[in-house]
Amino acid sequence: MNGSLQLVEEMSAGAARLRIDVYGAQPREHVLDDMTFLNYRLADVRIEPVATLPRPDIVWNQDGEKDISYDGRVVTFTGPWPAGPIQKVIVAVLALRMEQVGLHPSHSAAVNYRGKTFLFLGGESNHGKSMGLIEAGVRGALQVASETTVIDEAGRAVKGSVEPFLVKRTEGTERSDKAAPNRGVEKFWGDMPTWGMYEGVPDIDLVIVPAIDGNFDPATNQLIPFESQFQFLHSLQNYFLTNELLAPGHVMPMIDNDELRRQRAGFVARFCERPFFFIRAATPQVLLDEVEKIL
């Protein structure tokens, strides 16, 4: 290693743990100065007061030429990386550690409404998850999760992210193609509505894959097993960054493998025994009108 060991920090998401070792000439108090993104993406990530894991999952050598590598066990950063790419890798590796303890982050919002708990699934296209959550809240639903629903092996929503939108992007994660989230709110509701939060660990009864577009006539279709598993797998794979450019010339290393994918496919098949519906709608209001027909 180049330089001295400056920091050993352990993060947790439920029972999952991840250790990060930082080397270099410069001391650090924490790996990340802001945990907003981690909590947005994985619902509830904490810095543990004491590191207990025997070896690191991520190593950052702050000195040297910028690089990233993976040896099948440890992701190694070298050089002067901004916080954005580092937090994305933490999300991916911690999501794998969550899977090892039976917790599955799903790119979905979740609500409890009219006695049912259901997901608005990001799926392949991710068109309407947050807007569906807001309109459900307007109609009296209680929020279970916003960006991410953490699902256990029994199909229960055990954790959920709180904020409906990511309001701040860190250096290295800027996206000019992402519209400001408040624009959709202004268009459909004027001001940001408010709603309540669900207390407890509900069973997930069904899943909605929304597609909101101003040109769509309303249409609701129950998905066959292939379609439901295809869409749900997309929502799980969203955390492993297989198509992610971390910085110019540097892509996210492939931390997934065939065995992990087989295990994930097994969970997907079990979870998708519950009904899935694909709903096209021009607005969030029409989307919820269609949802109410199947509840």
CATH class of the largest domain: Alpha Beta
Determine the number of helices (DSSP H or I, runs of at least 4 residues).
7
Q: Which fold does the CATH topology of the largest domain refer to?
A: Rossmann fold
Query: For the residues shown, what is the average pLDDT?
Result: 93
Helix content: 25-40%
- Which shape, going by the Cα principal axes? globular
Order of helices and strands: EEHEEEEHEEHEEEHEEEHEEHEH
- Strand percentage lies at 25-35%
Q: Architecture of the largest domain in CATH?
A: 3-Layer(aba) Sandwich
What structural category do the secondary elements indicate? alpha/beta
What is the total number of structural domains?
2
Task: Walk me through what this model shows.
By secondary structure, the chain is an alpha/beta fold. It folds into 2 domains: 4-100, no CATH class; 103-294, Rossmann fold. The protein is built from 7 helices and 17 strands. The protein has helices at 36-42, 83-100, 129-138, 181-188, 225-237, 258-271, 284-294; strands spanning 4-13, 16-24, 46-47, 58-61, 67-70, 75-78, 103-113, 116-121, 142-145, 148-152, 157-160, 196-197, 206-212, 219-222, 245-247, 250-251, 276-281. The strands form 3 sheets. Strands 7, 8, 9, 10, 11, 12, 13, 14 and 17 form a 9-stranded mixed beta sheet that branches. The protein has a 6-stranded mixed beta sheet with strand order 3-1-2-4-6-5. The longest helix has 18 residues, at 83-100. The radius of gyration is 20 Å and the shape is globular. It starts with a strand and ends with a helix.
